[in-house]
Design a protein that fits this description.
By secondary structure, the chain is of the alpha/beta class. The chain has helices spanning 2-32, 34-38, 58-67, 75-86, 104-115, 151-160, 196-206, 227-234, 259-264, and strands at 94-98, 122-126, 166-170, 186-191, 210-219, 242-247, 251-256. The chain has a seven-stranded mixed sheet with strand order 3-2-1-4-5-7-6, sandwiched between helices.
Length: 265
Amino acid sequence: MSGTRSFYARYYGGLIRRGGFSLAKGLALPLVRREAVRSGAHAMAYPISTYAPWQSDGDFRRVFGAVKRNTLVDIWRCHELWGLLGELTEVPGAILEVGVWRGGSGALLAWRAASLGITDPVYLCDTWEGVVKTGPADIYYHDGKHNDTSRGIVEKLVSDMQLGNVRLLQGIFPDDTAHRLDDDGFRMVHIDVDVYQSARDVFEWAWPRLSDGGVVIFDDYGCPATPGVTDFVNEQRGLPDRLLLHNLNGHGIVLKRSTPELASS
């Protein structure tokens, strides 16, 4: 009986916490993100699906527990990164993350890659001095935002988790550091840079180097504070060599179609 009560306490306690957060977010949205609401393209989304595989994935939960204080990427998006990498074991190439902050999502990808037997490096690229290349589309961001981090914080996390497959590159990407990457291609690129021009520059550098069947994941897609990222990702729709998927969790996923498929179409 006590086990049953404990189960219901956890379930309803979590429901109240998440429901309260959603309510607060919905109430605040038109006040703090007025332009997004007025555009008519934003509303609170409440999917009816209840499937939550991150709840029962023991390995994921253990690794997420080790990195969650070092990332602004929530459990839903982290689990999607975890799952997508598991689908890419037969796709050749390294893993690239641009926009690392304190290293949480990058370390999670590196741990997952090692557990899958992927021997290619995981490149984590950041200025560690905040956002760069803000422009007119980025109405809520300014250069230097998210500068509350350092390379040393990421190095400590990588060391604590004993991740031997990580390569840290400091500077603006691709401008300053792309030449330091091995030119062997990529299976996954995670872009978490918050603003239009930076997202565009990273994507346009990475796309020709992405293996067929590889994926580019844009963080903050569809989020009201990052309209520049949403605008750029939407520009990828309808192009013949790619498939764009919109996930309500805040990911825009661009899948590279294979060359044989394009040739036969």
